[in-house]
Amino acid sequence: xxxxxxxxxxxxxxxxxxxxxxxxxxxxxxxxxxxxxxxxxxxxxxxxxxxxxxxxxxxxxxxxxxxxxxxxxxxxxxxxxxxxxxxxxxxxxxxxxxxxxxxxxxxxxxxxxxxxxxxxxxxxxxxxxxxxxxxxxxxxxxxxxxxxxxxxxxxxx
Length: 157
Prior knowledge:
There is one protein chain. The protein is mainly beta. The chain has 2 domains: 13-42; 53-141, Immunoglobulin-like, CATH 2.60.40.790. It is 14% helix and 38% strand. The protein contains 1 helix and 7 strands. The chain has one helix at residues 15-36, and strands at 53-57, 61-67, 76-81, 84-98, 103-117, 128-132, 135-141. Strands 1-2-7-6 form a 4-stranded antiparallel β-sheet, with no helix packed on it. The longest helix is centred in the N-terminal third of the chain and has 22 residues, at 15-36. The termini are far apart. Residues 35-46 have low confidence and may be disordered.
């Protein structure tokens, strides 16, 4: 058997062992890239871009900030379902320049979908979403506990 890839051969390494090692590296790289770019975090298979999110929690509320440059409030949809915050949108941007010697048109289109499982139950009627200067800020007030912790006496019969 002759070597088809002499530049990739390591001394004392069996061909099948080298192949297996290379395949494991390919899958590891793919899974790492998929997690970093959010390919498995959305029920929609195709996302053209993934906005950056900041999620913070205090005693009274959860706050989510999303960077959505080039979008307007009409391009964004926010919903809450089963204590999961869903943010989706579509970016449509077109730029056109006409000069004496040229005509320039540039279009950018993209869609995204993000689902954020919330760490606490929130009051749906009091959620507030504000979009300003390309930043979407969502305030989700937590449900206030109606009862304080109560010690229950254990009886014997």
